């Protein structure tokens, strides 16, 4: 992208270059045409003047005479301040005028005056010559009339034309440049519009883009849409896979475990009983790991495109306590509910929040001794705090900050089965909802207190 630079800039530069070339061509054409027109005008007047002089030639008894008509030269004077020269030559002899005015190199023909540009007396002059036979029969003489004029007037006209053409050319260029800037911007406007409509989307909005796109962008939009469709289906396949895998791993392992328990009860030899106990523990560990890993995958997946359900956090606490009630009962642990009465409204992902609470309560039960109490608490102040306080072994010397790292277990776990993902899950869920996980020792005596803290809606 960087390498190619900005399309807008390239488009602008190309259009401006075209404008510059056109302006230059315009300037050259206008100047050329205008100068040729001015030159043509001077030539016309010069030849008219020469013809007028030729018309006044007479032959009297074989001698060519000329009564120079005033108007012939005054018509030249009338256009500007230029100096005028003339010469009338009959058969090589100058009848009148400037004897040193050069004769035309290309002699004129009868009906066709000749024109020349030459240097004369330090100035550039333009000369027109006509030829006229004067007299009749053998006495006829070929008379060449040359009228010339300096070209200052023409140069002045040419300068004026040049400056006007330059002005118009520059103006044209500036206007075209401004239009190019606008054109480059407006040609790229659809890209900006489409980019905007894609960037404004939420992270889980994978609907096809159906912005009004120009034909050239259709393939890009189609590619983007088909990419999003593939992403959508791949994401939903991943989600299905996670749910499916969790189910398919847990169920058979539970069956194997139940069978192992039954076998354990039936066996008498202590070494056989020990072997089955180890087997049951291995089953517990692998079932736990598989379950937690899949839950963690589910949390990571859902946190990327967080659902925005309208929830009651208090109801969620009740549900968690109810779900794990049977597990707690197995150890004669009472879950005391200090959770107030009214609903605690919150917007978030119910499945994720449920997973977080369940993992925290699961820890409290796991790491508590039989016949103890766990207090589930909901505190509403500036924030919403959902906590579980137990009377278990506490964290001991364990570094509390590291417990949210994946697969990290405390030094206090003893022979309790676990995979070190529970608090990682709870922490990720808290962060996805703009909250945090707080881990501390129970201030009133033994045990741990683990809380989820969320900002209030
Ligand atoms: N209520 C608690 N009392 C004492 N220690 C706890 C408590 N909760 C968590 N811990 C400590 O924090 C560690 C991390 O907890 P976490 O839930 O992440 O992992 P786990 O319980 O070992 O494994 P699992 O992924 O199966 O839950 C535990 O290994 C334990 O040392
Ligand atoms: Mg745990």
Write a brief structural summary:
This protein has 8 helices and 14 strands. With 457 residues, the chain is an alpha+beta fold.
Secondary structure topology:
Elements: H1 7-55, E1 57-60, E2 63-66, H2 70-77, E3 84-90, E4 93-97, E5 114-120, E6 123-134, E7 141-150, H3 152-199, H4 218-266, H5 270-304, E8 309-312, H6 313-330, E9 334-338, E10 345-348, H7 350-366, E11 373-380, E12 383-389, H8 422-432, E13 436-441, E14 448-455
Parallel strand pairs: 9-11
Antiparallel strand pairs: 1-2, 3-4, 3-7, 5-6, 6-7, 8-10, 11-12, 12-14, 13-14
Helix pairs in contact: 1-2, 1-3, 4-5, 5-8, 6-7, 7-8
Bound molecules: adenosine-5'-triphosphate and magnesium ion.
Magnesium ion is lined by residues 359, 362-363, 418, 422.
CATH topological fold name of the largest domain: Beta-Lactamase
Main beta sheet: 5 strands, antiparallel
Strand content: 15-25%
In total, the number of domains comes to: 3
- Count all strands and give the number: 14
Radius of gyration: 53 Å
Number of helices: 8
Measured distance between first and last alpha carbons: 42 Å
Q: Could you give the order of strands across the largest sheet?
A: 4-3-7-6-5
Low-confidence stretches: none
Q: Which molecules are bound besides the chains? A: adenosine-5'-triphosphate, magnesium ion
User: Mind telling me the CATH class of the largest domain?
Assistant: Alpha Beta
